[in-house]
């Protein structure tokens, strides 16, 4: 299960930051997830909740912000929301470069 491995990494990051900051409780872990990250959020939440049981993160909210897939045209320089199959610019037909939407990172951790 891909999401279990992701959840383990997220929990490790949160616990490391909590230790570094002498926190006694983790209330929220917020993620940035790109449209192409391929994360099933329901499964990720389930895995996260099971991993934090009995820890200072028990009951912590796992929240996220989705980042749309965006691209920039090599020819006209236009930047826009694209679909994964858009390899050509819809405006001029030039080649597209993906500029956003692959992100997968912990954005912030709310601790006490």
TrEMBL record:
It comes from the Bacteria. Keywords: Metal-binding, Nickel, Zinc. GO terms for biological process: protein maturation. Zn(2+) binds at residues 73, 76, 89, 92. Pfam families: HypA. The keyword Transcription regulation does not apply. Ni(2+) binds at residue 2. GO terms for molecular function: nickel cation binding; zinc ion binding. NCBIfam families: hypA. Involved in the maturation of [NiFe] hydrogenases. Required for nickel insertion into the metal center of the hydrogenase. Belongs to the HypA/HybF family. This is Hydrogenase maturation factor HypA. It comes from Selenomonas artemidis F0399.
